[in-house]
């Protein structure tokens, strides 16, 4: 019986048109896996039409070398197309909802498969990044015509360093093995690091604000609420605010944290992170989800913000009590 990886390649071979999607508000792994797969398929099947669609995030435009890096395609292109959705756990989060118009749908993802979709699914939540999966797919099937290029390798590398926080999280031997293979291709990794490690002066000042105004509860849960007015004061331009998400981890007694960012619609985007207590189930209760240690959610108002704070605070305290009981039993 064919493996799911072989099945995916068989489907790709059957179609002349392949449209690759990923999640809304893309991060480097969403772009990296999507554009890495596109570059890999273009090199392997030059006769096919391969597109990558979704909104362009100006702050991440450096990821691509071309000025317009998302393809603009008419609805009719979907009539005969295979759609591949990368790095997206649930279907409402797929960027560009026309994905449903594809003749067949393939899901490739490393988030917990709480909301399955698609005709073919390759979901592996133990993988550090969807970009790792794309590289391993190439590796497993390269004798069947798949061609890696420096461009594809660069995109996949961006995805891997994005989701591992430049080798801080989700590490295992596989990550380093794949990265060592990827380094066989020539690309300018220094310029990637320059983009990923530096921020504008105004963004650095917002970082200072976040650290100064972080509320840290006795449990070790930290949070900050950023209003629209405040964010506008910092004049971030296209940068977005993702650079502030890892900041609370710098404080040793912080065990989990959330950044609440008010949107133009008046609701709040919530970005949650944890060192050890899973938070994705809490995120799911607030229109969100994600990984156990890195999730996103939505709060409609202050009342929901308070509920999220209480839920994570409680989860840390319960986890500590459970740990104490375990330690006592072990003694
Ligand atoms: P973020 O906080 O936006 O960087 O997202 C952290 C993780 O949670 C990523 O893997 C996202 O794909 C996932 N995530 C963020 N927001 C949502 C949401 N509303 N629903 C499901 N997953 C989400």
TrEMBL record:
Identify the EC number(s).
3.1.-.-
**GO molecular-function terms, A-Z:** hydrolase activity
Q: Which PANTHER family match?
A: BIFUNCTIONAL OLIGORIBONUCLEASE AND PAP PHOSPHATASE NRNA (PTHR47618)
From the Swiss-Prot or TrEMBL record, give the protein name.
Answer: Bifunctional oligoribonuclease and PAP phosphatase NrnA
By which gene is this protein encoded? nrnA
Q: Which UniProt keywords apply?
A: Hydrolase
| Sequence ranges assigned to domain DDH in this UniProt record | 18-160
Superkingdom classification of source: Bacteria
Q: Which residues form the DHHA1 domain?
A: 247-316
Please give one Pfam family short name. DHHA1
Cite the InterPro entries for this sequence.
DDH_dom, DHH_sf, DHHA1_dom, Oligoribo/pAp-PDE_c-di-AMP_PDE
């Amino acid at each position: 019986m064919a493996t799911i990886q072989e099945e995916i390649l068989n489907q790709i071979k059957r179609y002349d048109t392949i449209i690759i999607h990923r999640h809304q508000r893309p991060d480097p792994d969403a772009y990296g896996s999507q554009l890495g797969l596109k570059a890999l398929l273009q090199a392997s099947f030059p006769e096919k039409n391969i597109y990558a669609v979704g909104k362009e995030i100006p702050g991440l435009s450096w990821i691509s070398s071309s000025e317009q890096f998302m393809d603009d395609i008419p609805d009719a292109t979907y009539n005969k197309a295979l759609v591949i959705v990368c790095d997206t756990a649930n279907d409402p989060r797929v960027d560009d909802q026309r994905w449903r118009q594809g003749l067949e749908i393939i899901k490739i993802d490393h988030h917990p498969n709480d909301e399955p979709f698609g005709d073919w699914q390759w979901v592996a939540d133990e993988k550090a990044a969807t970009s790792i999966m794309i590289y391993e797919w190439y590796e497993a099937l390269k004798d069947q015509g798949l061609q890696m290029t420096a461009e594809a390798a660069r995109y996949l590398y961006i995805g891997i360093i994005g989701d591992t926080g430049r080798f801080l999280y989700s590490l295992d031997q596989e990550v380093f093995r794949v990265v060592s293979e990827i380094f066989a291709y020539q690309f300018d990794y220094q310029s990637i690091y320059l983009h990923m490690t530096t921020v504008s002066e105004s963004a650095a000042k917002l970082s200072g604000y976040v650290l100064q105004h972080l509320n840290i509860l006795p449990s070790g849960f930290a949070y900050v609420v950023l209003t629209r007015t405040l964010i506008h004061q910092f004049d971030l331009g296209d940068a977005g605010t993702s650079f502030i998400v890892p900041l609370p981890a710098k404080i040793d007694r912080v065990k989990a944290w959330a950044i609440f960012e008010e949107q133009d619609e008046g609701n709040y985007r919530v970005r949650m992170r944890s060192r050890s207590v899973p938070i994705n189930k809490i995120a799911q209760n607030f229109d969100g989800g994600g990984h156990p240690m890195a999730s996103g959610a939505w709060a409609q108002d202050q009342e929901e913000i308070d509920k999220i704070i209480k839920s994570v605070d409680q989860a840390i305290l319960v986890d500590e009590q459970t740990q104490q009981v375990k330690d006592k039993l072990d003694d």
